[in-house]
Amino acid sequence: MKYNYRGMTIYVEKDYEAMSKAAAEMLLSQVREKHDAVLGLATGSTPIGMYQEVVKAYERGEVDFSKVVSYNLDEYYPIQHDNDQSYHYFMKETLFKHINIKPENTHVPSGETKDVEKTSQEYDNAIYGLGGVDLQVLGIGNNGHIGFNEPAPVFAKGTGLVDLTESTISANSRFFASIDEVPKKAVSMGIATIMTAKKVMLMASGKAKAEIIAATILGEITPDVPASALQLHRNVTFFLDEEAAAVLLETLK
Ligand code: GLP
Predict the structure, then answer these.
(1) 138 by DSSP, 3-state: which?
(2) Which of 19, 46, 185, 193 to mutate to test the pocket of ligand 1 (most atoms within 8 A of CB)?
(3) Which of 172, 174, 176, 233 is a Cys-bridge partner for 181, taking CB atoms 3.0 to 4.6 Å apart?
(4) How many angstroms from the chain centroid is the CA of residue 84?
């Protein structure tokens, strides 16, 4: 089902697989329309199914990434890029090594830099220099974070170092050997950086995301729910499965 709410487009798909396919179609259309598209990419478990669909389309010869450029949302800090929990590693294993994107055209914030401020500013300048990415992919944390922009008194502007909340550290500990190994900080694109994207797509799946999705789309625009800033974006599409859309649909129906 497709809904429109205050200028936002919302697709509610039956399950995770259908949501992944619909989201992949949007990403693939972007690359087919513009061969040198600039993609803003996300990690987390939610987009994995979409990336698998993208890889399948590439293997079928339906899409060419040779001119595509990418900027990822975030990275833990500090972390070595060959650490299998780093987002550098995740992107390489999940997507980059399976398609013909040029490694030099892929960008992920550095978890190794000594000067986070300088590299963050360079990261933003590169994105601003492009006039924003063409299509930004987002997941959402249980607390409404996008990238690693946690609930805070004010919206984070540009890319920079952020402290992870206990809730995010605990949610992400499932990927690490123990909770003590989860880095306590990250480098993340800021909300202002994300808002420069020409198009934004946010994916969410499962019951655990139902409340935060309703708050993101229907609630107050507040830095307590960082994703609510997307209500101010002029071109945003949500890809939800029925479980993630459950609370939202009580109001939209
Ligand atoms: C991490 C990432 C986010 C992601 C979130 C949700 O914290 N920094 O970009 O959206 O997790 O992850 P998942 O999709 O696994 O629920």
Answers:
(1) strand
(2) 46
(3) 176
(4) 19
Helices 210-218 and 242-252: crossing angle in degrees, nearest 10, is 40
Could you report the per-residue pLDDT of 197-243, keeping only the tens digit for each?
Answer: 999 999 999 999 999 999 999 999 999 999 999 999 999 999 999 99
* DSSP 3-state of 8: strand
Three-state DSSP class for 219? coil
Q: Which helix (H) or strand (E) holds 204?
A: strand 199-204
Cβ(204)–Cβ(213) under 8 Å? yes
Please report the pLDDT score of residue 156 as a whole number.
Answer: 86
**Residue 150 appears among annotated catalytic residues:** yes
* Predicted TM-score of the model (pTM): 0.97
Residue 210, classed as helix, strand or coil, is helix
